[in-house]
Every structure is written in structure tokens, then in C-alpha cells.
Amino acid sequence: LLAQCYNLFDFEAVARRLMKKTAWGYYSSAADDEITMRENHSAYHRIWFRPQILVNVEHVDLSTTMLGTPCSIPFYVTATALGKLGHPEGEVVLTRAAKTHNVIQMIPTLASCSFDEIVDARAGDQVQWLQLYVNKDRAITQRIVQHAEKRGCRGLFITVDAPQLGRREKDMRTKSFAEDEGSNVQSGQNTDRTQGAARAISSFIDPSLSWADIPWFKSITAMPVILKGVQRVEDVLRAIDVGVDGVVLSNHGGRQLDTARSGIEILAETMPVLRARGLQDRLEIFVDGGVRRATDIIKALCLGATGVGIGRPFLYAMSAYGQDGVERAMQLLKEEMEMNMRLIGCARVSDLNPSLVDAKGVFAHSNPTPGDALSHSVYDPLVVPPQ
Ligand code: HOC
């Protein structure tokens, strides 16, 4: 059955049928009407390719470098909380699959496995980054950051889009935390288990975090510091001013502010401004949210991203099929990417450039958001095994 998953949407369809309602509720939920979650993928539909012809694409090389680290393909496993809701072994499953494909993994603060378990699951020269929720107690934050550096993490991604939890009604209805058999998450606070998983685990997060705090992070670590959750060009410029090494243009998978714009649209807004001011090489720009196809990855890179983060699809693949599922999902993306690089006439990631896409339509918000992108799939329900 795994062999019948032909794209990332298929894993979602299988996971939806196999997962416990509570776990599905937590992973799949997004804020309010989930408009931003759907828009995240739909925005890619409004960008069109302008392929070039007669380029030698016999050998296509997908390898690239992110934050100075070589990797096999320009996507990474982004941070997602509570991996054990989907699989009894949790995030280490993602670690092992990422190793197989030489893909970078971002370790979530709110993982089910402990940080050290996820690091211990690493093999060889495998690369991991740390995603950080900043604790109200900065001494705790400092310990987490410095421990991550000591354990070999090579990037600190500070989440900046979550001063308060978005309202995820699916999660609130299913109250997954009450049934979370596996979570090791230690918030150190009393948790309200009646409001869904996210609310229960997030009460330690500091809503007073501000620009004034960012230099402190630079002072406590030698890891590159990246702001995750930047949503407009003005803030990218400010990030350059405070000297961070990168930004992730992201709306938290649509789980925070509903009707926030997609990462890919923010990228299309940002890059012309940076280029006009000669600032495009001052930091690395990542995008996440709604990436389901290699064409999405290619579009983001054409527009100037260094790499893209992928979250839910790997959770669904893990929930449905464990490590094999995540490895297949990664393999499918690699195959899609190799083919589509050929079809647009690029043999190397460094050849991707803005002339290869027409992105004018990405700003056209008047288009209705189709409801088919993330919530439906072409997967044939007849081949899904009974629960
Ligand atoms: C205000 C804190 O990232 C999710 C996780 C946890 C959210 C914590 C937000 O569910 O999106």
C-alpha cells in the first residue's frame, strides 16, 4: 500500500483514516476557518513556470547548501510538536528517515521525545537545527540553546509568530492532550487539558519577546540565529538590521493568525526589495507552509529562497507508515524535483532564478481559495486497509 502513495497528498489521506481522531485533530488543525492553511498551498498554484529550452539536463544535481551545511535537496524537516501522537517512537522516526536521504531536521522545542533522544538518534555527520520557543524564564532558554550547541545543532530558529496560541477548533474539540500517551513535553506549568493539545503545552512561552531581545540570542550562541515566522518585508529588513543570519517566511502552517499571507507570497514581496537595495546576500531566506510538490520547492528557490521547510506531510507519512513512509515521501519529492528541474531546463539548484517563473498572480487575493488542496486527495479510499 505504501507503494501506492504517489505524492504527499496521498499520505495525508491514509493518515486521516488510520490516525486516532485526537491525533488527527492536533496535526491537521489550523486557526479559525483554516483559510491560511489552504492558502499556503493554493498560493503556489498562482505561480507559473517559464521553462527554458535546449539546456543539457542529462545529469541533474539537487544538492545545495543551507546555513553553510551541504544537503542532498533543498528542503528540510521543519519542527512540528508532539510526534508521539502519530507514531509510538515519535520524532526519532523523522531523524532516521532524514539520515537516509541526507535531509536536515529541525528539532522542535515541543517534541514528544526529549531533545537528547532526538540528537542521539542522529547518525554520522547528520545535521540538525533547533527550533526554539522562548521561555518566560530566560535562564531556561539559555540552557536549552547552549545545550543544543554543545550537542552539535547547527542553527537556532527562534519562533516569532506565536506570542499567543491561535485558535484551533478541531484540536479544541478533540482534546488530544488528554489522550497523548507519549508526550515528554515538560512545560513546567499547570496545563489545562480541556482546551486541546496546543494550549496545554504552550503556557510557558513568553509573549513579551521583542526585537530588543534578539541581540542577546546572538550573544549566547555561535550558532546561526534565524527568525522563524516573519511575515512582511519590513520585518525582513529589520532582521537584517539586527544582524540575524536568516529568516523563515512562515505563518506557522496556518495555525496562528488566520488570513495571514502565505510564505511564498511574502517571498515574492521581499526579494525585489532586497535586490533593489543590494541586501539579497545578507541573510538566508527559508519558506514553509503548504509545500506539497517539488514544483513548489522549485518556485520558492526561483524566487530566492535557500530552502523550504516541510512539516505536516512528513508527520502524516510517519503516522501512516513509520520510517518507511517518511523515506518514501522524501524519495517521491526527490524524483519529482529531478524531473521538474529537467522540464524547466535547469541542471543545478544554483541555476534556478526569477526568470523561470511568472509570479505576478501570487498577489491576486481576489481568487477564491480552492478547498481541494490540503483537505482532499486523489487517494483511492478502497485500497485503505480497515482500522
Ligand atoms: C503560543 C504557543 O507549534 C503548534 C505547535 C505548538 C504551538 C505553541 C504556540 O501546535 O503549532
Note down, in words, how this protein is organized.
The protein contains 13 helices and twelve strands. The radius of gyration is 20 Å and the shape is globular. The strands form three sheets. An eight-stranded parallel β-barrel has the order 4-5-6-7-8-9-10-11, surrounded by six helices. Strands 1-12 form a two-stranded antiparallel sheet. Helices cover 37% and strands 12% of the residues. The longest helix has 33 residues, at 312-344. Helix 4 (92-101) packs parallel to helix 13 (312-344) and helix 10 crosses helix 11 (263-276). The chain has 387 residues and is an alpha/beta fold. It has helices at residues 8-18, 21-28, 35-45, 92-101, 115-120, 138-150, 169-174, 197-201, 214-220, 233-242, 263-276, 294-303, 312-344, and strands at residues 48-49, 64-66, 69-71, 75-77, 104-107, 128-132, 156-159, 225-230, 246-249, 284-288, 307-310, 357-358. It starts with 7 loop residues before the first helix and ends in a 29-residue tail after the last strand. Mean pLDDT is 90; it is low at 186-193 and 372-387. (2S)-2-hydroxyoctanoic acid binds at residues 81, 110, 162, 164-165, 198, 202, 205, 252, 255.
